[in-house]
């Protein structure tokens, strides 16, 4: 039985059914982490191309990273705006805030994270006040990152529906859902013992270390994990950065498991088609876009290995040198995003500077934010060594590239399974447990020989390698088709814009 949500303006005025429909107004509340806000902004821009108003809320330094993208879209006439709200750390018992005053997750030390989430939850009041007093038009739908349970009250108070936003694939979200729903880890004491994911036709094994469930297994986070689960269960629908042709059974499986509609809208990175917007996506790049393109232009098609572990993960110094030596030994041209120099100790810096000199011309090190979407879409890109953040994985799919999978934490182990076992486009380096957020940090998880072998396998790899590359190219064709007019993701974007117009009555459950 579908539940019907009457989409009404967030005022007390009655919306007359016969009145001409006014555009939807989506309010995006992303998690303040680049892997979440970047696809949320892209989704907002895609909805704005269909005439929907979109307001994106963020904290000040997080907003600063995506402002150039939003401003450029506004200048081109899209009805999108970005509003920032500072965090009140004192109100959650952190009178001096978190070190460095961080308001974006990649800069928050783990021991401050729970307090940080509490401070973010206090944004509800200021956001609501802003929407009532300043928004160009009342909100008609909240699109909330699934990690923000407090948006349940925000949406209820405004009297509008709330969609859960996932920058994750349906396979991952369904696996996590099923291991929790069917208590797959009950009685399993060893966090590294594989269990079969219940409720799926195909057999996949996971361990509790790899897929503990969202916010599960961290002492002190139990209530937050429960709140997040409740908010997911009570959502009026789901927006996901994936496309249905890539994983039809898992999209349908999650919709059925939750009894709610899933709008697949990706790969949202394909919104960006020009060098300038590709280069500005997500942050200010540490390399000039034209220099980067010139470097790539000099290389043969499909010859360059791109190496990046996303916006949060960073490696131990000894691991840095093993990776560098493996790349050097592979003999392929490469771009390696080594992040800011300040993130490395003296030994790692000395190693990286030495490597940079030795491989000049063949290897390019990017010291900070890389224009990743620009690099992956260049014809010289040949393979992507990735930590399997979902955005990176999907960006590889959109670019038609095979991946070397090296998960570090959270959903990345399931995304690795997606790339290797579901899609058949990945070569694993064989990491079995998370390396982030643990006290017994290991120096070296993947040795140089393994790096070299995995890179060779992705770039060459005989028949298996060719099969992976073929599958990756075929997927990219489907991904682009999904985003074109008439494609599945494009149709879902149009549907969302229509469903949440003022006065629309939308069935949000399947
Ligand atoms: N990204 C980028 N340049 C960088 C690092 C990351 O453009 O130097 C982008 C990348 O394209 C992706 C996002 O940041 O869109 C990272 O998200 P992902 O889910 O891959 O990983 P996370 O950072 O959340 O671990």
UniProtKB/TrEMBL annotation:
It is an enzyme of class 2 (transferase). Pfam families: UDPGT. Belongs to the UDP-glycosyltransferase family. It comes from Aegilops tauschii subsp. strangulata (Goatgrass). One of its GO terms (molecular function) is UDP-glucosyltransferase activity. The keyword Aminoacyl-tRNA synthetase does not apply. It comes from the Eukaryota. CDD domains: GT1_Gtf-like. This is Glycosyltransferase. SUPFAM superfamilies: UDP-Glycosyltransferase/glycogen phosphorylase (SSF53756).
């Amino acid at each position: 039985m579908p539940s019907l949500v009457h989409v009404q303006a967030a005022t007390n005025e009655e919306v007359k059914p016969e009145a001409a429909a006014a555009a939807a107004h989506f309010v995006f509340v992303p998690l303040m982490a680049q892997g979440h806000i970047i696809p949320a902004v892209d989704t907002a821009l895609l909805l704005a191309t269909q005439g929907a108003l979109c307001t994106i809320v963020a904290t000040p330094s997080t907003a600063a990273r995506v402002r150039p993208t939003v401003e450029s879209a506004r200048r081109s006439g899209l009805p999108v705006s970005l509003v920032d709200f500072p965090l009140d750390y004192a109100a959650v018992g952190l009178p001096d805030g978190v070190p460095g005053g961080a308001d974006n997750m990649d800069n928050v030390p783990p021991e401050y994270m729970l307090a940080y989430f509490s401070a973010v939850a206090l944004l509800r009041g200021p956001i609501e006040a802003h929407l009532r007093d300043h928004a160009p038009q009342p909100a008609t739908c909240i699109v909330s990152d699934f990690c923000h349970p407090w948006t349940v009250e925000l949406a209820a108070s405004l009297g509008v529906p709330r969609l859960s936003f996932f920058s994750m694939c349906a396979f991952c979200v369904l696996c996590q859902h099923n291991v929790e729903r069917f208590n797959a880890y009950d009685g399993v004491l060893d966090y590294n013992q594989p269990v079969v994911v219940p409720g799926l036709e195909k057999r996949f094994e996971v361990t509790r270390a790899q897929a503990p469930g969202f916010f599960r297994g961290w002492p002190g986070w139990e209530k937050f994990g429960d709140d997040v689960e409740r908010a997911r269960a009570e959502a009026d629908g789901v927006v996901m950065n994936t496309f249905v042709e890539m994983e039809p059974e898992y999209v349908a499986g999650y919709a059925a498991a939750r009894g709610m509609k899933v709008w697949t809208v990706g790969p949202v990175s394909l919104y960006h088609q020009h060098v300038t917007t590709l280069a500005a996506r997500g942050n200010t790049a540490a390399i000039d876009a034209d220099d980067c393109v010139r470097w790539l232009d000099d290389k043969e098609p499909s010859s360059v290995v791109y190496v990046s572990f996303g916006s949060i993960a960073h490696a131990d110094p000894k691991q840095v040198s093993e990776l560098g030596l493996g790349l050097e030994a592979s003999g392929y041209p490469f771009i390696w995003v080594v992040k800011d120099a300040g993130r490395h100790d003296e030994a790692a810096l000395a190693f990286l500077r030495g490597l940079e000199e030795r491989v000049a011309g063949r290897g390019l090190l990017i010291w900070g934010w890389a224009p990743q979407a620009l690099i992956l879409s260049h014809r010289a890109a040949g393979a992507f060594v990735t930590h399997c953040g979902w955005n990176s994985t999907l960006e590889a799919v959109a670019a038609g590239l095979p991946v070397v999978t090296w998960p570090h934490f959270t959903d990345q182990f399931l995304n690795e399974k997606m790339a290797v076992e579901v899609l058949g486009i990945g070569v694993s380096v064989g990491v079995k447990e998370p390396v982030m957020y643990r006290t017994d940090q290991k120096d070296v998880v993947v040795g140089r020989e393994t790096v070299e072998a995995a890179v060779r396998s992705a770039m060459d790899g005989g028949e298996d390698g060719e099969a992976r590359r073929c599958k990756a190219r075929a997927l990219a064709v489907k991904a682009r088709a999904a985003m074109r007019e008439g494609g599945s993701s494009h149709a879902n974007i149009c549907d969302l814009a229509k469903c949440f117009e003022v006065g629309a009555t939308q069935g949000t459950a399947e």
